[in-house]
Structure formats: structure tokens, C-alpha cells
């Protein structure tokens, strides 16, 4: 199960980093059996709000549903503590195989990270790092952003943004 979850979440997170927008809904279907596990994760993305986003997951075992859920929550909360953002949705499933006294809690959480409204007093290096991150989120497509709005957010001129792009090796 963990291998299937890890693979599905990694694949979806790679797609989400290249997709413009924020997650508005998460749904999943998880099955396990003797032959292995099947994991299907579906997200709905609102393209009008551009934010970094990701799927977190945990699959923990316990002697009861409560114990397994506590362990899964602890793992997810540790990951959430490293992010600044909001939970956009979650999926929880308990699986109790025929082995006595074992229950697995599978928890998936969709997270939209915060993006500051105003970014002021950044050094040119910090500003370029943020610009590079923006372009990675947009699939390295420079035409995907409005340079005038970016300049306004960073409180610099459009010429400064063009120079930053040139320094990053991005031509527009």
C-alpha cells in the first residue's frame, strides 16, 4: 500500500507543480488485496488562484482505528508544520486485513500553500529566487505571467523584472 501511495502522490505532485491554480477538492479511491494495491487520486484545481500546492499522505498501522488514525495524523501534522498554507481537502480510509489486531489508516491531505500579498524589501538575489520558483510552478513558460503585475508585487519596475529574467536565463 505504501509503495502505491508514494508512487501516486509523487506522480500527482509533479503534475500539480506544473499546473496553474489551487486545489479546491480532493477525492480518492484506494483498494488493497492479495495481488497488491490500487490508488487513484483526483484533484479539482481552480486556475484563477495561482498557489503552490501538494498532496501529503500517510499510511499507518495500529491495533485499532483510533491508534492507526493518531499515527497517521501525527505524520501528516509533522509535514503540515513545515508548510505555510491551508488544507483544501482530505481523504481517510481504514483497512482491516484478516490478520488480527491490525488496522491501517490511510490519510491523504491536499494543501494550498500561502503566497504573500506583497513582497517588499527583497534583495535582488531573493527576488530572482522567487521569480525562478514562479516559473518552475508555471512550467518554465515566461509568457504565462503578467510582468506588470509581477513588478507591482515586488515593488520594482518592469525593467528590473526584465533584467532579473535575463539573469535567470529566461528570455521573453
Folded structure, characterized:
This protein has a three-stranded antiparallel beta sheet with strand order 3-5-4. Strands 1-2 form a two-stranded antiparallel sheet. α4 (147-154) packs across α5. It is α+β, with helices and mostly antiparallel strands and 172 residues long. It has two domains: 2-113, no CATH class; 124-167, no CATH class. Helices cover 38% and strands 32% of the residues. The mean pLDDT is 83.
Brief write-up:
This protein is 38% helix and 32% strand.
Tell me the strand percentage band.
Answer: 25-35%
Helical amount among residues, as a percent range? Answer: 25-40%
Task: Find the structural class using helix and strand composition.
Answer: alpha+beta
Task: From the alpha carbons, calculate the radius of gyration and give it in angstroms.
Answer: 20 Å
Number of helices: 5
Quote the average pLDDT. Answer: 83
Q: Which of globular, elongated, flat, extended, rod-shaped describes the shape?
A: elongated
The total tally of domains equals 2
Q: Report the strand count.
A: 5
What is the makeup of the main sheet? 3 strands, antiparallel
